[in-house]
Amino acid sequence: MTTSSSPPLLPPRPAPPSARRSWRGALRQELFATPLDGVISVLLLAALLAAGVGFWHWAFRQAQWAVIQANTTLFAVGRYPLLQQWRLWLLVTLAGATIGASWGLLRSHPRADRSGTLWPINDLVAIAVLAFVAAWLPVALKLPVPLQLRWWAITALLLVLRGVSGQWGQLVPRRLLRFLPLLWPALYLFGMVLIAGGLGVPRVPPSEWGGLLLTLLMASFAILLSFPIGIVVALGRRSTLPLLRWSSVLYIEFIRGAPLITLLFLGQNILGYMLPGGWAPDRVWRAAWVLTFFCGAYLAEAVRAGLAAVPVGQLEAARSLGLSVPQALRHVVLPQALRIALPATVGQFISLLQDTTLLSLIGLLDLLGTARTVMANPEFLGKNAEVYLTLAVLFWCCCAALGLGSRALERRLDPSHSPT
Q: What is the pTM of this model?
C-alpha cells in the first residue's frame, strides 16, 4: 500500500536585489557596465561637455541679444496696434486662469486624472520651471516694469488657481466637471472676437496680425477643424456608397500628392477667380483653410489606420446589442480607433505647427516672416544666429507642449491603467 507523498519543496529563490541602490551603483550599472560601455559613455560625455561649454561661451559672451530685446513685441504680435494690445493681455490672463483652474480640478479628482496624487513630481517640476521662466525672462528681455508686473501677475494667478482648485476641487460635483472641457472652445471663440474685433470692439484686420500670435492662430484653427474633417473623410473612404467613397479617395490622394507650398500658392490665387468679388476671404484665412484641408487629408489616413485596427467583431457585437450603425461607430468603434491613432494624429499636429513657417513664402508675417523682416534691418545685420535660436526655442516649447499633452492623454485613455 502506497501513501501519497507531498511534492518536493522547491529550492528557495534568491533574494531579489535591493530596489534602492546608491547613486554610484546606479551610475556604474547604467554607464559603465562593460569596458566598451564605459568608453562610449566617456566619449559622449566629453562631446556633450565640449558642446555645452562652447554654447555657454557664445550665448553669454559673444551673442548680442539686443536684436531680441528690441523686437520682443514684433516677434510676439507683429504689427498689432499698440492701443489695442490690451485685448491680448486680457486673453492671456483668461487663458492663464483657465489653465490653472483646469489643471487643479483634474488633479483633485483621481478618477479624472488616474493618478490620485494632488501634487505629483511632474507638477512640481512644471511649476518650478514656469515660475523660473516667468521671473527671469521679462528681466532678461529688459521689458518695461509694467510689462514685467503683468507677466508676474498672470503667472501668480495661474499658480494660485492651480492650488485653490486642486485643494477644494472635490467640492465641485462630477456632473459640473463634465462641462469643464467646454471652457476651452468658449475661450477660443471669445479670443477670436477679441483679436479680430466685434461686439463693440474695433476691428483689427488680419493683415496686422503677425509673429507668434499669427503662428498660433493659424495652427490652432487648422488643428481644431482638420480633426473632424479627418474623421468624416476616413469614414467616407470606408463607406459602401461609391460616390462618397471615391470622393474621399480623390480628396485624400490629391492633397497628399501636392506639396503644401503649392497648395498655399494655389489657394492665394485661385480663390480670387472662383469666388465673386467681395466673397473671397482675406489672405490670412485663405492660408488657414489650405492648412486645414491639408492636415485633414493626412489625419483621415491616420484615423483610417485606427479603424482598420479595430476588430470587425466589435461592430458586429454592438449591432447585436441593438445599436444602430451610427451609435456603434460613436460609442464602440471610434473611441478605440481614435485611441490607436492618437500618436500619429498628434505627430501630424506637430508637423502642421512646423509647416506654418511656409506662410512667410506667401507674404504673411508669421514668426519666421517676422524674423526675416528683423534680420533685413541694417541695424541688426549679422544677428541671424540669435534670431534663429530664439525661433527654435519657441517652436520647441510649442511642440513639447503638444507632445506632453499627447502622452498624458494616452495614459488617461489607456484601459490597462483604468482605476479599479
A: 0.83
**Same structural domain, 361 and 243:** yes
Q: Are 255 and 263 in contact (CB under 8 A)?
A: yes
pLDDT tens digits, 82-96: 888 899 999 999 999
Report if residue 393 sits inside a domain: yes
Centre a 10 Å sphere on the Cβ of residue 118 and count the other Cβ atoms it contains.
16
Torsion of CA 392, 394, 396, 400, to 10 degrees: 180
For residues 226 and 176, state if they share a domain.
no
- For residue 109, the model assigns a pLDDT of 67
Domain of 104, in residue numbers: 82-203
* Res. 301: pLDDT tops 70: yes
Asked if residue 7 has pLDDT above 70, the reply is: no
Q: Which three cell numbers stand for residue 101?
A: 483652474
- In a 13 Å sphere around the CA of 106, the CA atoms on its Cβ side amount to 16
Contact between 348 and 296 under an 8 Å Cβ cutoff? The reply is no
Provide the 3-class DSSP secondary structure of residue 365: coil
- For residue 91, what are the contacts with CB-CB under 8 A and spacing of at least 6? 190, 191, 194, 195
Rg (CA), the chain: 27
